[in-house]
Amino acid sequence: RDNPIDLRFVGPLSVEAQGTYLMMTTQREISACGLLALTLRRWARMVAHGDPARLVQWINELTAARFVVLDKDTEELLVRTFAKWDGGYLHAVRRKAVIASATAIRSPRLRAVMATELDRLGVPHEIEVPPDSDPDGTEPPPDRHESGTREALDTLSSGTQVAPERHSSGTPEPVESPGSV
Tell me, what's the pLDDT at 154? Predict the structure, then answer.
């Protein structure tokens, strides 16, 4: 397939949200299952002319329409049906990459969503899903302090962010965000 992303299924989203979706699905760093590190400031420079608040609005629109699911705590964003439209799950070698990248998802919530997507595609997997997770990606986990996506994204778009885990201690360290220096 020449173009794995088919925007005719995007539906009644704003043009800006559609552009944000296209930007996300064409990131070099997107995993075989559709996982991205949440990099709002970098993405904002690409689609919102440097305005993270506008980008947050479009991500909220994509989240409400269930095109993406995010986890603020792990700073991960999952393009929910990326593996389906990419078509990689149909090929044995690429299917292994899809399953491996899905297994590497840190967020229990996103792992549950991805396991559901793989089930829908008929892809056998052994992704461990916690019993209290939300496989449809529609509700924030019960232990969340944030009430929803808007607050989670607002928190990420300003202030202190958490660096990726260090392998030595496994403890995340707070770092200053680029806008607060």
Answer: 57
